[in-house]
Amino acid sequence: MAHALLSPSSAHRWMSCPGSVSLSRLFPDESSSYAEEGILAHAWAAHFLDPQNQPQPAEALSSDNLTFVQDYVLFVERETAGGVRRIEYPVSVSEVTGEANAKGTIDCAALVNGTLKIIDLKFGKGVKVDAEHNTQLMIYAAGALPLFDVIDEVRAIELTIFQPRINNICSWKLTPAELEDFVNKARARASIAINYLRADPLPLAALEPSADACRFCKAKAACPALQQKAAEACDFRPVLDKGQDIPIVPEEALSSEQLSLNLQLADLLEPWIAAVREAAYDQMMEGVQVEGFKLVLGRPGNRQWTSNAEAEAMLKSFKLKEDERYTYKVITPTALEKLMKAGRIGERQWKRAETIITRSEPTPTVVPAADKRPAWSPTATASDFTPISN
Ligand code: SF4
């Protein structure tokens, strides 16, 4: 399958910063153990849901990941019961992106009572993904709609994110007309991005930095627009002039308006700073000299036995008592819950255990106002908000 430059999964980026398609293709895709883990989880989920067409992966899942995948499989079966279901469903996205032969693969697409359901398994746990206005799923829906519309009329579309490792399951509904509005907007932005692919040199105006767009952009360590933002940030007009007396409380510097501006800037610059550090590390590990910086070794890791069996035998030969040789720890509530789910203890026993489970109070954190969680006030009482489960 052709690898799309304007992929549905990066639509939130190229719709916001059309020049990023041109700039980021200069940087290789990086694989990680997390990405591999996600690919394996998807392959197992597809096999469980459609064993006839989806081969059983050669590699097994860890028991934790197997539980997450089974939860997803049960969810999909429940949500799509009685409907027409397709797993690992390839759809053309060229109509939206304008890129020839571009395809996307939907984890699960189904038509249930006139509703086109697009369900996406997200295996990451770093960033909570929202179904509402999710550009990736809307592009998938646009690709799937004509294929399901011939089976039966699609009257509504429902997008669902199933992100089991952070207990995030969310859905959002829209009408075919609302989807068409989005497709028109996406098409217009994609056409700008494709025009920039032919531009050499790329105009600076092609790049539109924003915290959301830049966060996962491969080009961010080398992006001139993001660098410019950083330079502007360093060139803040000082609140106080040289020669001016310093007030005891610098209220202007800590005003709510100034803090709001600074936080928006921090959201944009933090990923850039991390990417610059990573790029410098990678290059220096390859032997490149970066003026003014060097590599040093950190502290060595914690000491551990090279062989537990050998250590056990040796400690016994030292005539140490058993309680001196071993450390016993009671299992955690999370481990007990897993045993309950595996049927090793019953619901009643779990309820009894719950009476002696405690957890520390959640600590407040600063997030953008658009965050879905309810605002918390330091003057609120504990009962005024619901803690987030993990
Ligand atoms: S880092 Fe940000 S501004 Fe630069 S290309 Fe990527 S998305 Fe665009």
> Helix segment count?
14
The proportion of residues forming helix, as a percent range, comes to 40-55%
What series of H and E elements makes up the topology? HHHHEHEEHEEHHHHHHHH
Question: What is the rounded Rg?
Answer: 26 Å
Would you identify the regions where 5 or more consecutive residues have pLDDT less than 50? none
Distance between the termini: 37 Å
User: What's the domain count?
Assistant: 3
The major beta sheet can be summarized as: 5 strands, mixed
* Quaternary form: single chain
Instruction: List all distinct small molecules, including ions and cofactors, that are bound in this structure.
Output: iron/sulfur cluster
CATH fold naming of the largest domain: Lambda Exonuclease, Chain A
Overall structural class, as computed from helix and strand content, comes to alpha+beta
Question: What fraction strand?
Answer: 5-15%
Strand order of the largest sheet: 1-2-3-4-5
The coarse silhouette is: globular
Mean pLDDT: 91
SS elements, strand count? 5
What's the level 1 CATH class of the largest domain? Alpha Beta
